């Protein structure tokens, strides 16, 4: 008996099938979309040569420094990240203007809220070392933003008897006017580590 030759398989259409499968998976697969941190940048000054120096009382600044090792300093005192939110809330929501460690207060009128309301002149200044990891930067950002969110939620319950998320646009604007999110970020520098 003679050996039979094995028939060849026509593979010319395999490339077409692989290409169609590749297209199918590209079209049907969802991709994670990176989201950034929502910040509103200051407007561009009309005269680029014009420099404006703004005098800010030191007690109105909550200075947060993050060094290259991820250590956090608040107003020149080291702090653990798990205490940052509560400390920031104390600074933002201060009600004692006579305390020199807390920011100055001012009375404002807010549409939709009866009588004058006290608001803080405080600003949170965040400065990072060039060697700060992105993860640590996001952790600090999250704690500072969470402090504002919690205070706004408390204020909305106080003034409108419901959580901030359930307020209408005018009510949310009133709460934001009392507690504007004032987080200033400086350009990263080389602060070193502790």
Oligomer class: single chain
Please state the overall shape, judged from the principal axes of the Cα atoms: elongated
* Strand arrangement across the biggest beta sheet: 3-2-1-6-7
Q: Gyration radius, to the nearest Å?
A: 27 Å
- The secondary-structure class comes to alpha/beta
The residue-averaged pLDDT reads 82
Spatial separation of the terminal alpha carbons: 86 Å
Largest sheet, in brief, is: 5 strands, mixed
In total, how many beta strands?
7
State the share of residues found in helices, binned by percent: 25-40%
Give the DSSP E fraction (strand runs of 2 or more residues).
15-25%
- In DSSP terms, counting alpha (H) and pi (I) runs of 4 or more, how many helices? 4
The H/E string reads HEEEHEEEHHE
| Uncertain spans | none
Can you give a write-up of this model?
The strands form two sheets. This protein has a five-stranded mixed sheet, with helices on one face. It has a two-stranded antiparallel sheet with strand order 4-5. The mean pLDDT is 82. Helix content is 33%, strand content 16%. The termini are far apart. The chain is built from four helices and seven strands; from the N terminus they run αβββαβββααβ. The protein has 194 residues and is an alpha/beta fold.
């Amino acid at each position: 008996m003679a050996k039979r030759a094995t028939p060849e398989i026509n593979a010319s259409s395999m490339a077409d099938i692989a290409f169609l499968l590749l297209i199918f998976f590209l079209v049907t697969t969802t991709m994670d979309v990176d989201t950034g941190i929502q910040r509103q940048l200051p407007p561009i000054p009309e005269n680029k040569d014009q420099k404006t120096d703004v005098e800010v009382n030191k007690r109105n600044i909550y200075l947060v420094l993050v060094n290259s090792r991820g250590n956090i300093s608040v107003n020149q005192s080291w702090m653990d990240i798990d205490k940052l939110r509560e400390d920031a809330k104390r600074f933002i929501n201060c009600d004692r203007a006579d305390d020199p460690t807390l920011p100055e207060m001012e009375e404002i009128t807010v549409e939709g809220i009866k009588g004058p309301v006290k608001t803080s002149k405080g600003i949170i200044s965040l400065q990072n070392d060039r060697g700060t990891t992105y993860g640590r930067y996001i952790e600090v950002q999250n704690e500072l933003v969470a402090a504002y969110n919690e205070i706004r939620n408390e204020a909305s319950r106080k003034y409108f008897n419901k959580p901030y998320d359930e307020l209408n646009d005018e009510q949310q604007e009133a709460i934001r006017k009392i507690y504007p999110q004032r987080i200033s970020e400086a350009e990263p520098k080389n602060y070193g580590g502790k």
